[in-house]
Structures are given as structure tokens and as C-alpha cells.
């Protein structure tokens, strides 16, 4: 463990706000903008019930448009701050800040964002954190640029020095580096004590090369919530079964097995012949609540029940996320939580 007192908080620790970017016709949402905006409105309504929301908008016109939609839905704009900045897309889990903290200071870890290994243009997204800093969103927090590709959706933190990630993703981003080299970089940059790796698990239609937040999530009390597949005839069954076995073999820092919460499997959702990545593991924890993706599927309620069980004392709020998976992500992917005291 590094001697710094900085650490990467767990998502269930107190938050100041959630950060999102509003979709618009200049993003990949253009073809189905109305449908995806309905999800963003539902998300904003859910978040602002419990805490503040920061919305990045591309310009004054989009600011006015988003404000009107939120007002029409009865959302309290006093709990929302708008920031005008350019962005390529709206997946702020991956382009937003990874915030480390200690008792009295914050560090914004600004890793290089490459559009998921060069799949998409990312010039504006890679500059987003610097733009937010320049806009004064984060007060006196230290802004630390790191010339190494990493997305927020690619890591999970238990808040106590353990990072969980996937080999498939980071080996794609850094094909010339060994697992040991990448573990050392993660430990150093995230001030962690250890890194746990999964070698199995993926979702068809996922552009991220198996981000951990689509597969397995830390929860309080040494729990792990993960996406299982109970359908032996599904192409994902064997891989997710092996991932479940890997998770069962993991141990806490003091040598105990994790308590596992397998999630149900949604029926295949196919759009114009393309399988979409519908993961219930892609949920968002906020103050006093957990927001759970819903896909208009029979498994939605059972997934919400299990996630609520793994996060006791929090209200469970389902957010309609079927429009999001058309672009291969879900609820957690479009959000980034900001720790209490940061703003």
C-alpha cells in the first residue's frame, strides 16, 4: 500500500452529486434522441430526489432545451447545475473524473480516454475533466493528468484498497504490458493495496471489452453482485458461469470469501439483428438509494430485489434503460458519482 492517505472511495460512500452529459443530435443518440431523452429525464428525476445533479450540455440552446424538458416533468432545477462544454458522447463513467480522497483533500485522476481503445473519436471527451476543472466545478481539488488509458467503468473499488477489473479490457488497452505491470500502475495511481482480476465474462454488443461495471460490482459488507446467465442455451452461459466460479474463488483482504449475489438474465434483446448488452449489474448507487436498470423484461423486478438486498437501507428505484442499450451501455455507464465535499 502506498503511504499516501488518498484512496478511491466505494460508490456507496456519501456523495455530493452525480455527473451526466445530456444527449443531443450531434452525438450517436441522434437517430433515437426522443427515446433516450426519456431515460435521462427519468434518471434526473430519480437522482434529484436524493442529491444534486450536474449536467454537461453542449451549448446554451441545449441548456434551454434540457431545462424545459426537466421542468415539464416537475423536476426541481434548484438541485441541478448545468455546465456548457463540448463532448463527443455521453458515457461519463468513462470520460469523467475518478476521484480519490482523504480526510481533507481530493484528487481528480484524469486518465487518457481513447474512445475504448480507438473505436470512436474522443478528442472532446478526453478534455472533459480539464474543462470541468476550468469551469470551477471541483473547487480546489487537485487535477492529476495520467498518460495511461483507463475508463471508470473498467474498475470497481471497495473503498478499502481493493480494485476489481477484467483482463479482457485492460489487455486490449495495453497489449504490451503484463498483468503485473498493469497491477502496479493501478495500485500506484489509485492508491490501492491490491488488484483482483477476472479472466472471464463478457456481453455481446459491448464496445468496452468487458468493463467490470457490466459484470460484477462490489457492495457493502464484502458482497459482490454479478450478472449471471441461467439459460444454458444462451451464448453467454458458459463464460458467465466461469466468471461466477472466479468470483467464488476470490478472497477478501483478510482471507474470507465474498458473499455473492447472482443477478437474473434478461431475455435476449435484439435490434435490427444485433444483440444488445442488457446487464442488471450496471446499476448506480447514490445517497440513500440504488438506481437499477429496467429493460421491460420479466426479470426486472427480481434484479431490483437482489440489488436492494445487497444494498440494505437504500430505496430501490428502477430507471427505464432499454433505450440506452441501443448504444451498448446502460445506467452506470452514463453517470459518474462525485464524493461528498468535492463540489
UniProtKB/TrEMBL annotation:
Keyword annotations from UniProtKB, A to Z: Hydrolase
InterPro entries (UniProt xref): Peptidyl-Arg-deiminase_porph
Keyword flag Hydrolase: yes
Entry protein name: Agmatine deiminase family protein
Organism: Dyella jejuensis
